[in-house]
Amino acid sequence: MTATLAPLTTPLSPRPEIVRETSAAGAISVEQRLSFAELAYRQSWLRKVVVLAVLAAVWEAYGRWLDNPLLFPTFSATVEAFATAILSSEIPTKALVSLQTLAIGYGIGIGLAALLTTLAIGSRIGTDLLETLTAMFNPLPAIALLPLALIWFGLGQGSVVFVLVHSVLWAIALNTHAGFRSVSNTLRMVGLNYGLRNLSLVRAILIPAAFPSILTGLKVGWAFAWRTLIAAELVFGVSSGSGGLGWYIFENRNALETTNVFAGLFTVILIGLFVENVIFANIEKKTIRRWGMQH
């Protein structure tokens, strides 16, 4: 026996829509205006300036507390000696000599690193050659080769350039090779599907993809070359007939002009900061950040 349902005769009435107004007190603010302190804290260059100002203040305070200019001059005395040497063109001349020598060694090192990396990515024997040479010579301090360089190239620019090439070559070649090897096969296949071959594939796909590692190698190579150059000039002095910043520091140390020694070191630091925060930062901004590889 089955029960039968009675037909629904009364139509369903629609549920009324309830709209509640949000009060101004409970409203959530999506955008919030930052204070001046918060805006200033977001500026990287301003934070670095504050760090440098604090270091200069500590330097000045310690120099005044020690009160021994022969041992540790104050920051203000160093800046005064630096300004005097700048106005007399002594430091610019020395810095130009050092930078010219550095440019020669750095350029040759980049060229040889590019050659070794090309061989390494083109054949297995090239990879074995690069890995073996890097394992042999990368741990070897560049300054340890300077006596040997003096025997081969004599007292002059050639011996300094030789140790500069050694300090630059292995760091750049190792990082560049690691960058090329880290490029995914998917990315290579994308380039091949677009019809890119040989040099066009390297220029359009491999170099942009590996550029973070290449830039890291250039930075490391620059730092190694800069410190090696100053150390070589400090130990052996004259290069190419006229000394650079290292020779300027060495001469003033012999004359017990400690303030001038600090002025020379101050110049070395300023050039290092300029290269790192202006030149390499702009290269990074126009390449890696522009290509979306770094935020």
UniProtKB/TrEMBL annotation:
<keyword id="KW-0472">Membrane</keyword>
<dbReference type="GO" id="GO:0005886">
    <property type="term" value="C:plasma membrane"/>
</dbReference>
<feature type="transmembrane region" description="Helical">
    <location>
        <begin position="160"/>
        <end position="180"/>
    </location>
</feature>
<feature type="domain" description="ABC transmembrane type-1">
    <location>
        <begin position="91"/>
        <end position="280"/>
    </location>
</feature>
<keyword id="KW-1133">Transmembrane helix</keyword>
<feature type="transmembrane region" description="Helical">
    <location>
        <begin position="200"/>
        <end position="218"/>
    </location>
</feature>
<feature type="transmembrane region" description="Helical">
    <location>
        <begin position="230"/>
        <end position="250"/>
    </location>
</feature>
<protein>
    <submittedName>
        <fullName>ABC transporter permease</fullName>
    </submittedName>
</protein>
<keyword id="KW-0813">Transport</keyword>
<dbReference type="Pfam" id="PF00528">
    <property type="entry name" value="BPD_transp_1"/>
</dbReference>
<comment type="similarity">
    <text>Belongs to the binding-protein-dependent transport system permease family.</text>
</comment>
<keyword id="KW-0812">Transmembrane</keyword>
<feature type="transmembrane region" description="Helical">
    <location>
        <begin position="99"/>
        <end position="121"/>
    </location>
</feature>
<feature type="transmembrane region" description="Helical">
    <location>
        <begin position="133"/>
        <end position="153"/>
    </location>
</feature>
<dbReference type="InterPro" id="IPR035906">
    <property type="entry name" value="MetI-like_sf"/>
</dbReference>
<dbReference type="InterPro" id="IPR000515">
    <property type="entry name" value="MetI-like"/>
</dbReference>
<keyword id="KW-1003">Cell membrane</keyword>
<dbReference type="GO" id="GO:0055085">
    <property type="term" value="P:transmembrane transport"/>
</dbReference>
<feature type="transmembrane region" description="Helical">
    <location>
        <begin position="262"/>
        <end position="283"/>
    </location>
</feature>
